[in-house]
Amino acid sequence: RPDLRPFAELAHRRGIVSLEDVGSGCLIDTDKYGIDQEPTLGESIAAGVDVVCASGDKLLGGPQAGLILGKASVVDVIRRHPLARALRADKTCLAGLEATLRHYLRGEAEEQIPVWWSISRSIDWLESRARSWAQTLGSRTSFVSTEAVIGGGSLPGKILPSFALEIDATNPDAIATRLRTGSPHVVPRIINGRVAIDARTVLPDQDDLLIEAIRHVLEN
Questions:
Q1: Where in the chain does DSSP place strands (E)?
Q2: What sign does the dihedral 135-137-140-146 (CA atoms) show?
Q3: Burial of 158 (0-12, 13-18, 19+ CB in 10 A)
Q4: 3-36 per-position pLDDT tens digit
Q5: Which residues contact 131 (CB under 8 A, 6 or more apart)?
Q6: Helix pair 172-181, 207-219: axis angle to 10 deg
Q7: Which burial class, exposed, middle or buried, applies to 154 when counting CB atoms under 10 A from its CB (0-12, 13-18, 19+)?
Q8: What is the pLDDT of residues 56-99, one digit of tens each?
Q9: What CA–CA distance (Å, rounded) separates 218 from 186?
């Protein structure tokens, strides 16, 4: 990714609007999680880019939407274009975006926004959690180190170390199918012939539901 400042300066000298699609909508420095730095919206604006586009979901963590930020003089022209009315977000989407952005303003994104909650968990915490699941469920389960893929449009190809619960089964595909179609639904992976559930992918209030779902499948 090239330095944006020379491009923005060149555009300004030529009287051209500079635009960048940041994509993921990242607002947090990813370096502290051992992930290659993801460009942030603030960096692009500070570099002098006139218009910055991003997603409202992905790393921003809000509802699916498109965001347009930048210089008021340019954004106002976009806002007044007839297509802006046809494609405008509804009140529910705007309320979701507002609630998400307030978490950033309060400094609580890592605890309140699911994608950042998952990314920010320490490896020791994940090991302890997976061990607790295995101890609760008994002899047909164990916990193992694994890798979590952040993936999608958020951080494609980026991997974090993690821990997972493994279920020992003679037919792992059947166990995985029953977990997916059970109640509550659980979507596992199959790693080396064993059903695995990554500790990064289960939200903090879902432990009891997970244990209940796995126990029901193993007992039946």
A1: 19-23, 51-55, 66-70, 141-151, 155-167, 189-191, 194-198
A2: negative
A3: middle
A4: 899 999 999 999 999 999 988 899 998 888 888 8
A5: 143, 163
A6: 130
A7: buried
A8: 999 999 999 999 999 999 999 999 999 988 888 899 999 999 99
A9: 13
**Residues in the chain, total:** 220
Structure tokens at 5: 């400042």
State CA 187 to chain mean position distance.
Answer: 17
Burial readout 108-131 (b: 16 or more C-beta within 10 A, e: otherwise): ebbeebebbbbbbbeeeebbebbe
Nearest alpha-carbon partner for 168 in 190, 145, 186, 141? 141
Task: Classify residue 36 as exposed, middle or buried by CB count within 10 Å of its CB (0-12, 13-18, 19+).
Answer: exposed
Supply 219's token pair: 């007992």
Quick one: pLDDT at residue 192? 86
